Amino acid sequence: MLKRIEKVAVLGAGTMGARIAAHFANAGIPSYLFDIVPPDADGPARNKIAAAGLDAAKKSKPAAFFHPDLAKLVTVGNFEDDLKKLGECDWIIEAVVENLELKRALLKKVEAVRKPGSLITTNTSGLPVSKISEGFSEDFRRNWFGTHFFNPPRYMRLLELIPTPDTDPKAMEAVAHLGDVQLGKGIVHAKDTPNFIGNRIGTFSVLNVIRVMQEMDLSIEDVDALTGSAVGWPKSATFRTIDLVGLDILGHVVGNMKQNVTDERSDLQIPDFYKQMLERKWLGDKTKGGFYKKQKGPQGEERMALDWKTLEYHPRSKPKFPALEVAKTIETTPERVKALLGLDGNGPQKGDKAGQFLWTTLTELWTYAANRIPEISDTIVEIDAAMRMGFNWEMGPFELWDAAGVEATVGRMKAEGKPVPANVEKLFAAGKTRWYDDSPKARSGRCYFDIASGEYKDVPVANGVWSVEVAKKQHKVVKKNAGASLVDLGNGVGCIEFHSKMNSLGGDIIQMVSSTLKPGGPGDHFDAFVITNDAGNFSVGANIMMLLMAVQEQEWDEVDMMIRQFQNMTAAIKFSQKPVVVAPFGMTLGGGCEIVLHAPARQPHAELYCGLVEVGVGLLPGGGGCKEMTLRAVDAATRIRPDGRGESVEMMEAFKKAFETIAMAKVSTSAVEAKGLGFIHRDDNIIMNRERILFEAKAKAIEMVREGYKPPVPRTDVAVPGESVLATLKLGVHIMRQGEFITDHEVKIGNKVADVLCGGNVTPGSLVSEQYLLDLEREGFKSLCGEKKTQERIQFTLKTGKPLRN
Q1: Residues contacting residue 102 through CB under 8 Å, at least 6 positions apart
Q2: Whether residue 16 is found in the same domain as residue 153
Q3: Most CB contacts within 10 A, which of 87, 141, 204, 347?
Q4: What is the CATH number of the domain that holds 557?
């Protein structure tokens, strides 16, 4: 049986400590946050440092808390007055400065007050975990190990667990389970080596990129163009990422590596220009300047880039690499990397600096990673997972190597006289040419080459971790078109998966959902359905390009048909004879949000950025979104009116909230906030681990079948507020225009939204049907489509990805 962890303490209220406590609050786990007492402080001021840390976490951007109210779960204190409270805690996390003696002195005090069996871990990234606990009691050492969170803890999924020779495996198992299920972390087991796994590989990669940049005389902008999304790394690439993290933080990690690591690339070091930046306190975003800084110019605020040779800033330039421009047209990262490296059959481009740079840095990254086994990790799996979850790489080093082709790259490396790792020769000696391969019977859906045994082994995953991609390998795809697939999940449950670009909702997806849920359709043999996918975002909304084309051709019958089809799709979801569970995550905007609003049941991920954003392109929600917000407002007003008194006040408040949500295009910053905005229900269970939502959604669908699910009946008795509330909302719009907060066109949009939400200019309390509200919505949508300024907004957004205020 796993140890219960119901209360935690975080010792150290710096950037990491405070945000770790915040994320425990996100998981509903109360915590203490302690730090030192300021000199000569008295009374409440003795907690000043911890309180300041918590306050910084409350104000941090991106937000550390799912909702500001969750900060109440964090109680501040100090190391002198409050350590005795640690006796209440099941898990104590040390996160003070990286000073061995300071840590040991504090932990000696902790040892005297902690309850036996309580877990005690360190968030150190630089000190040997076993050395910190030398000489402590047996119970302390058995429950002592490393828990290395990555910053910011809410968003970075990686949690490295580092045991010592004395650590009780059951203690680590308890933290691994809580980290996975309640904190949403991806758990990686590391060894007690300097910088563990993520920072060891990541630091080498950064230092090597900087070295090659200098040797090839490339600019900061050049390198960021080459080391971003082109190779499946974050858009912030190399130097923008360093600015975000802080040059001092990277300097500290590198310093620890230089002091404690001796390997074949120990020659790598921070260059002189970087040291000068540290001396000048050019630390990145925290000091308003690093490799980039914002500066006011003739065209407004612009981002300036640093010339590393002169340490002077200049307007950021756009790098011009012909190979990179060609690669941008390639959809998938594996094919893009092959093309950039000249491994796609076309050969390297003559004088192609982009290909030369990437060939050098990637082959040296692959070699370095391969040589770290078994030093920092027993298998390739931990290294790949650490880089995906700790650095947001699309693929880890070995996965990227497979994508480029191990045989082809090693052949070229040998031809050029580059060293080839012994572990690669073991792969070839075993008759294998890939680090990973499919393994449909495995829970993970794939196997990896185990260097120690020379055989493929299943990639291990925890129970409940699943994906649509793995489900396809284990079961089958029933039906597929360009935008969506119907996948058999087993046990009578089908999954409707979106896979269009950005999961935008076009005709293919509408057709797949509608036909699947229709009696006698391709999903007729299923008992229930789940709607979700494996992409980074659930859906960014409707495909407005097709809409714009129809509007510009004045094909109004076509526009009307598009809206009706979308409304029919959301109605099919809501009124399906079989239960439908929608599992949203990430960006769930516009039409994606409307799908969630119509879902009979939802299984949301914690990181849910959900909103009806149509006003940004001059429209209103046309797929039933306005109708559903009206129903919610009516029901909310009914709930808060138990004795029939003051109807107009409650009704007004409910509709004002719904109107502001749509008219201001509010988007939730978490699933918790999505509940407050009315996009998901207050009793919906939020899943913290993104990799678990498919499993949980399927379980919910099966449960609904067992409970004898009965679909709702379309409502015909919706008591709309009509002219009374409508007049008040329009007055608010007028006042906003008088204050010059909105444009004339936004007045039109706002008034149209108000009209649709209130059921039109009818007598208050008039009973209308859902279909009546849909018809109003459709007509409002079409009328806005005919506005020139709406068409300008759509065109601008399609071109720039940004909204236009006109």
Answers
A1: 96
A2: yes
A3: 204
A4: 3.90.226.10
